[in-house]
Amino acid sequence: MNILTLNCWSHSIRYRLFAWDRRAILAEGTLERVAIGDSFINHRVPGRDTFCRDEECGDHRSAVAFILATLTDPGCGVLADVGQIAAIGHRVVHGGEKFHRSVMVDGQVLDALRDLQHLAPLHSAPNIAGIEAARGLLPDIPHVAIFDTAFHQSMPEHAYIYPLPYEWYENYGIRRYGFHGPSHLYLAKRAAVLLGKPASACNLVTIHIDRGVSLCAIRNGVSIDTSMGLTPLEGAIMGTRCGDIDPGILPFMMQETNLSARDMEGVLNQKSGLCGITGRYLDRRHTLEGALDGDERCRLALEMEAYRLRKYIGAYLAAVGPLDGVVFTAGVGMTEWLARERTLAELGCFGIRLDRERNRNASQQGAEALITADDSPVRVLVIPSDEELVFVEDVAAILAGKHDDHLSCGYLFGRPDFVP
Fold it and tell me: What is the number of alpha carbons within 13 Å of residue 87 lying toward its C-beta?
């Protein structure tokens, strides 16, 4: 049984084709510049050179059609025809309070997603467009929605309600939802295996650091708090997002500079974070190079990032209780040993004793790794997350009629004999 996963953004789509029966990746890739011109695909098949091709894709329907054509292309594809695709799993960023787990997509589910679109308009619109495109092209197979927010629906009310007029929650759904759910779920399961404990007995802080950054407090295997909120803007410092700030800054600066609400939203999402502090760098590599060359604002940006992450770890330790482990993942969390070292500095009082050599080697290995000393009461792990595998396993479980809450689901990556 072949399962295709689609992760649709405004101008790009990431995809993976997985042979479930053989537990093997057949192909994966990215399609860039959807709807903005000069679209191109990077298509990867294990054991072959990466295949690249330009193809104008003016919308998500033409983009999904191009992906299907590439998968079935006699030269670069891996399928004889699209009839060999048994189901498609779609990443959906926002499921609101309605969706606590992955679900089969039908007309009612699509209507519900449209009703929730206002909660994350930049993300939900392309997610919905991808589902509609795929259902239009392959209407006779199951389509499954996998939600970023679902993993965090276990948060208690005192963690997700904001100290705002309660009717805002009742009438507009203003509350903490959290994101990166499949990533945090994967980390929770893999960390439990590496720590030699059942997932339901593990207390963790998981840290996803990429262009977006989120932390999750996990008690007994479930999310009890997370740093992103109503939107992905809240929380830690990110590449271009501000994270936590004094909300009084917004009306003050809107009055001082005559900014509209839309203008302010653009500043907070696209001109803040590390980019805002350095004043010029969108690419993290340039910030790192600047810091090494003595640029004080680049140095400040990285120090602020580590300090804010360190504060979150301390806060979540208080929320979770006795901590088994801290887990780093995603682009920065996996590859930058210095970011991890700075973040964990001065946390020895909490039982975190970093082994610097292990930490530096972990970046080179690109695999699951322990980076604390043998006598560290709290272990710190580096684990490559695999969100697409979560998508695939949820699709397979739903098709088999065995999908339940994540503690009851028998995820393959949660087994000791699983090899990432």
Answer: 23
**Is residue 420 a part of any domain in this protein?**
no
**Contact assessment for residue 344 and residue 372, using Cβ atoms and an 8 Å cutoff:** no
Q: What is the pLDDT of residues 92-103, one digit of tens each?
A: 999 999 999 999
Model-level pTM? 0.94
* Strand-pair partners of 204: 218, 325
- Answer whether residue 157 is part of any domain: no
Residues 282 and 206 in one domain: yes
Residue 417 per-residue DSSP state: T
Can you read off the two tokens belonging to residue 391?
């998508």
Active site residue ranges: 148
How would residue 405 be classed by pLDDT, with cut points 50, 70 and 90?
A: confident
Q: What is the pLDDT of residues 128-151, one digit of tens each?
A: 999 999 999 999 999 999 999 999
Do 82 and 19 fall within a single domain? yes
Residues 215 and 117 in one domain: no
Burial class (CB in 10 A: 0-12, 13-18, 19+), 3: buried
